[in-house]
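Please complete every field before forwarding. Incomplete forms are returned to the sender.

SECTION A: IDENTIFIERS
Entry label: holo-225
Bound molecule: fe (ii) ion
Molecule representation: SMILES string

SECTION B: INPUTS
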Amino acid sequence: MRFKILYDNEAKDLKAAWGFSCLIEDKNILFDTGGDAKILEHNMKRLNIDPKKIDTLVISHEHWDHIGGIPYILGKNPGLRVYILESFSDALKSKIRENAKLIEVSEPEEIEEGIITTGELGPGIKEQSLIVEDTVITGCAHPGIVEIIKKAKELVDEISLVFGGFHLKEKSEDEILGIIAELKKLGVKNAIPCHCSGDLAIGLFKREFEGYQEIYAGKVLENEF
Ligand SMILES: [Fe+2]
Ligand SMILES: [Fe+2]
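SECTION C: PREDICTED COMPLEX
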């Protein structure tokens, strides 16, 4: 499976901006849309990705830096399915419903073969992550990256790669090293934080995971395990 990063705080030959979006290339599934529809449009055009080809959009959580690009995706493919959380605002739900088939998620659910949403997680900010075979993609990981992987492992046997926003900006070095140890104990072979993860976390994951690769808008990642 190939994962193409369309939107991130870092970029090469594309626009960088605060937010996250990733295309599951072989499946035409888009996970999150970044914070700005114009920037998403610019990056997708540069990468030659036609929004008409997106069949499924999954939104991790209702923060501006993940939902801002939705207007560029809506109304392009008449068959578009959009997976959001049941707890999202009525305003966003009705905007999506006008242009696409809206699916409200609370429990884990298979989107298509081998692709499963974790369902709504977290005691605070509700969020879903996406399991693609043995890879997990996170938006901001507000429920906690370890909690997300634990949940994913209830749903599939093995998780070898996880990437996305890990939301570790307020964590100390010791706390981050503890999280890395827990992820390794859960069988994760490579974990790549980007977007809102914080520079300290990004540096520590880079040091602790041999297969670490830098993530930026324009990057193509493959699960090599
Ligand atoms: Fe975020
Ligand atoms: Fe967030």
